Amino acid sequence: MDFNNPYIHSVVLIVAISVAFLTIMLLCAFTVLLERRVLAFIQGRLGPNRVGYFGVLQPFADFIKTMMKEDLNPDQSTKFVFMLAPMIAIVTAIMAIAVYPFGPLINLPYLGTFPLRIAQFDVALLYVLGVTSVGVYGIALAGWSSNNKYSLMGGLRSAAQMISYELALGLSLIGIILICGTLDIYAIVQQQSGWYGLQWNILYQPLAFILYLIAAIAETNRVPFDLPEAETELVAGFHTEYSSIKFLLFFNAEYINMITVSMLATSLFLGGWNGPGVAQFPLLGVLYFFAKVVFFLFFYVWLRGTLPRFRFDQLMDFGWKFLLPVAILNIVLTATVLFFVG
Amino acid sequence: MTTILFILFAGLAIGCAIAMVSQSNPLYSAISLIGVFVALASLYVTLAAPFIAAVQVIVYAGAIMVLVIFVIMLLNVEHEEPRRKRLRFLVPAAIGMAAVLIGETAFILYSVQATESGVPRTVSNVGLTQSIGVGLFTQYLLPFEITSVLLLMAIVGAMSLARRNTILSSTARVVPGAQVLAMDIDPARAGKETVETETTAEAAHLLGVEFHSNQENGE
């Protein structure tokens, strides 16, 4: 098949986008189930196991239940911004999926060879950072427009937290960029295919990996950094006033952000689809990729079951006085080593 | 295709810019400004400058505007009643400048011949990360460093302005002459140093407190 033909190309693109979208949505649904089950086991409970085998249909039951709720608009809220906020949150969360390579070049009979990604361009990494940084508005505006003290507190906390940790997140990636010499995620993944698919960047940048992991958890507002929705002090934080589908959009955006961040960690540090045997069986690469992503998702749930929440001043001190200097130190170290080694 | 995208994003940018100026609520203006930034970034992409587009979104839409919105949300500006129109002479001046701008655009559109270059305009290496990086750290190193020093100075300046207690020592007591301050001066913090002022406004200024004169209401 001729992929250079613009019509065939756009059809292939639309199919690719649909497949990626469905994959992410399903992954999102089962992450929720994974979280509930694993958290239950950590706490010595069973968790939801009645809807379908081992509860596999539970996310869909939850979805239908939430959709059937009444869509409330608080009195005196800023209606337009109130409606806009969840849209910003979900759109920016999904947009970042476009640049991740899910697998190597796949050769299918009758169809030809094509890469398993939607878009590949020069500034893919910056694109992810940019889209994520716009996502702050969803939460901040939701908190403001609800006309509710708890929501406003949640929104403000989240804006402050995400700005602070975005810096550490971006700086922790610079070491990788220095080593790879490119911002193209596909090229970065391809560079890690040496040593039978085990030449991962984490071996060169262990410090950056740890920094990235911590900053990413804060960036997605998860335990132990879930101050924007600290339920013991703020009811539910920025989404206190949201119900029905608007709440679902926020909920999905949070889980999609988790998946995005996990995919970025997989692509940049754990070699993406690289692993033993991928050169012989390219489809194995897809399996490796999702296995690594699911490992990170499990890690998130594991943390949630283990760690208590930070206090807000501790959070800010940790971000500005520890993560940021260490990230800058990592850049200096990497640049020095690269200067002498080449 | 590029033309359709250009019209789409240019329209978005102009629409958001008009909304930004005409909104009375500062938060709506800020949101419209974010729309302008995003539309401009999209235009940069169609002009084969993806790096500039990404930086535009990260720096302006992602960082600076978040701070602006943060401030607006914290201050929680009430709905102001329409103020008296000041500086009326600016209206004809604006119209005149707009006419000049439109004339200039028309001149460019009709008089300047588009020269055909060998390279298609959307395919070039100038806007890519590598060429920008090489340019910044070799040919344009001095302007780049001067700009960063300028930004550093701005940060230091803002911080020294924000630290009001450097004007007076923390133990200083401000006593307004015959006037009485609405805000009580904390007696626990009173020290030996005493500063006397003539008016409440002056005392308020020394304390770093906002002061509104009620002259219109006849005090």
Structural features, described:
The complex is a heterodimer of chains A (342) and B (219). Chain A is mainly alpha-helical and 342 residues long. Chain A is 66% helix and 3% strand. Chain A is built from 13 helices and 2 strands; from the N terminus they run αααββαααααααααα. Chain A has a two-stranded antiparallel ribbon. The model of chain A has no long low-confidence stretch (mean pLDDT 85). With 219 residues, chain B is mainly alpha-helical. Among the domains of chain B are: 2-79 and 99-127, NADH-ubiquinone/plastoquinone oxidoreductase chain 6, subunit NuoJ (Four Helix Bundle (Hemerythrin (Met), subunit A)), CATH 1.20.120; 167-211, no CATH class. Chain B has helices spanning 2-22, 26-46, 50-75, 90-111, 129-137, 141-162, 200-207; strands at 173-176, 194-197. Chain B has a two-stranded parallel ribbon with strand order 1-2. In chain B, helix 2 runs antiparallel to helix 3. Chain B is extended, with a radius of gyration of 26 Å. Residues 178-184 and 187-192 of chain B have low confidence and may be disordered. Chain A binds chain B through residues 78, 81, 84, 121-123, 126-127, 129-131, 133-134, 136-137, 140-141, 143-144, 152, 155-156, 159-160, 163, 166, 182-183, and chain B through 27-28, 31, 34, 38, 41, 50-51, 53-55, 57-58, 61-63, 66-67, 69-70, 73-74, 128-129.
